[in-house]
Amino acid sequence: MSNIIPHNFQLGKDDRNHHKGHQSFVIWFTGLSGSGKSTIANALEYKLYQEGVHTYILDGDNVRKGLNNNLSFSPEDRTENIRRIGEVAHLMVDAGLVVLSAFVSPYRQDRENIRTIVGAQNFIEVFVNTPMEECERRDVKGLYAKARAGEIKDFTGINAPYELPLHPDIEIDTTHTTVEESVSLILNKIAHKIHSKHE
Ligand code: ADP
Fold first, then answer.
1. Is the CB of 58 under 6 A from ligand 1?
2. Residue whose CA is closest, atom 10 of ligand 1?
3. Containing structural domain, residue 158
C-alpha cells in the first residue's frame, strides 16, 4: 500500500458533475427482503432518467452474481459484501452518477461505514420499513417459505438479525405508501441536492 502514490489526474468529481449538469451521491435503500427496495429504486431511477439525471442501480442481481460471487451470507461475508458495494458506489459517485443501491444491508455499522466512505453529504439512507409479516406474505422470491422450512440459514428476519437504522433520512412503510408516493418522497428530499453547486 505504501508504494501506491496517487497520480494527479486533471479531472475530478466536480468537473464530472459540471459536465453532467447535476451532483452525484448515493441513495442507499435498506430493509428486509421483499420490503420494496428494488421496486422503489427502479421507479425512482426511471423518474430520474426522464429528468436527464445519470444513474445506476446496484442490487443483488448485478453484484452477487459477479463481483461478489465468492461471498456467502455469513456475518463476515455480508460485511465484506457491503464494504465492496460501498467502494463501488464511491467510485460511481466520483464518476458523476446518482447511485441507487438496494441491499438488505442488515448491519448498522456496515451502513455507517459506507456513509464514511462516500462522505455523509453524499449518502441518503432510505429505510424501507415494511413489517416483516407483510414481506413474508408477499414472499416475492419464495425465500421466506424456504427459510421457514429450514432450507436457508442466515435469512434476515427469520434466523439472522436486522439492525434498524437509528436516523434514516427517509423511512417508508409500503403498507401505507404506494410506489409513486415513495418516489415523490425521495425526489422531494433530493431535489435541492441534485442541482446544488457544492455541498
Ligand atoms: P426488496 O428489493 O426489498 O427485496 P422487492 O422490491 O423485490 O423487495 O419486492 C417488493 C414486492 O412488494 C414487489 O413484488 C412489489 O410489487 C410489492 N409491493 C406492493 N406494494 C408495494 C409498495 N407500496 N412499494 C413497493 N413494493 C410494493
1. no
2. 36
3. 13-191
Evaluate: CB of 79 within 6 angstroms of ligand 1: no
The residue from 105, 182, 184, 196 that is catalytic is 105
Global pTM reads 0.95
| CB of residue 38 inside a 6 A radius of ligand 1 | yes
pLDDT digits (tens, 9 = 90+) for 136-171: 999 999 999 999 999 998 999 999 999 999 999 999
The reply to whether 105 belongs to the active site is: yes
* Rounded (10°) angle between helices 13-20 and 75-94: 70
Cell numbers placing 158: 427469520
* pLDDT tens sequence across 47-83: 999 999 999 999 988 999 999 999 998 999 999 999 9
Indicate the number of domains in the chain: 1
CATH number of the domain bearing residue 174: 3.40.50.300
With a CB cutoff of 8 Å and minimum separation 6, the contacts of 102 are 29, 37, 38, 41, 57, 58, 59, 60
Measured from the CB, is residue 143 less than 6 Å from ligand 1? Answer: no
